[in-house]
Specification:
Helix content is 59%, strand content 0%. With 82 residues, the chain is mostly helical. It has one domain (15-80). The mean pLDDT is 80.
Length: 82
């Protein structure tokens, strides 16, 4: 087993639920969902590197855009409620 770094991450309100939903839809753990997103973002790996190809690329992009919009909305709501 290769060594693994651990990092505590604070998520904006609602982000955990969005990640959980995406992970469930992709039939994997939340950790695997986060790793896939980070890998594709920072290493420019093709979509599906860590995920099954149950969804088309267009469906994956649509879900990703929805997640980003939802995270922004949740962040704004959290700031407004303070």
């Amino acid at each position: 087993m290769q060594p693994q770094d651990k990092y505590v991450l604070r998520l904006p309100d609602g982000m955990r639920d969005l990640i959980r939903e995406a992970a469930a839809q992709n039939k994997r753990s939340m950790n695997a969902e986060i790793i896939d997103t980070l890998e594709r973002t920072y290493r420019k790996l093709p979509p599906g590197h860590y995920r099954s190809n149950l969804l088309s690329d267009a469906e994956k992009e649509e879900i990703w855009e929805w997640l980003q919009e939802r995270a922004k909305a949740d962040s704004k709501e959290a700031k407004a409620s303070k």
